[in-house]
User: Fold this.
Amino acid sequence: MVIVDPQELKALAPQSSREMEILQFVRLNEVDPIYFETSYFSVPEEAGRRAYALLLNTMEQMKIAAIAKVTMHQRDRTVVIRPYDHGLTLHTIFYNDEIHEVAGYGKDSAKNLNRQELSLSEQFAKSLIKPFHPEQFHDEYQQSVRELIESKSKGKPIPKAQKGKTLAPVIDLATALKTSLANKKRENATAAKRSRVARPASGRKTA
Assistant:
């Protein structure tokens, strides 16, 4: 056991604990998302509003991000600052030695893919392409916990837990894609049939 005085730790605090230092600017697409850790909204103090606005405008015009150093929670952090929705967001990032490779990752990719498999994969992707709306996604577990608390507080029966999905046996990707596309076509055909049934029939009147 070693006893360390708080003042000794304070003396070791890096320079960035007293100021944020911009080290360089980069093209944002050069920073792989795997390095992103936590995101924060950056709001300027009154005295720094003009400098903030100038930096934001420059980064938006040039489509760049800043790499900076700052101390957060007594730890020297490297961060990425980027324009977002008329403001600057700050992303703490993992250091390179914190990204651990998994044995075999990226080394066993099949190279003998045939045209049929590639075509199926492309059709599958195209059938599910939709605009990204983040508000459509939520933490279902958190919602269930809130419902549980609300039910107990009002003396109501506890909501029944939903049964987990039964995982299908492992099959090859081509078979899975064919099945998925077939189901999609069946759904589209059913929807089209319902539309035709709902449409009033047309015809000539007879005397």
The chain is about 35% helix and 20% strand. Confidence is low (pLDDT under 50) at residues 200-207.
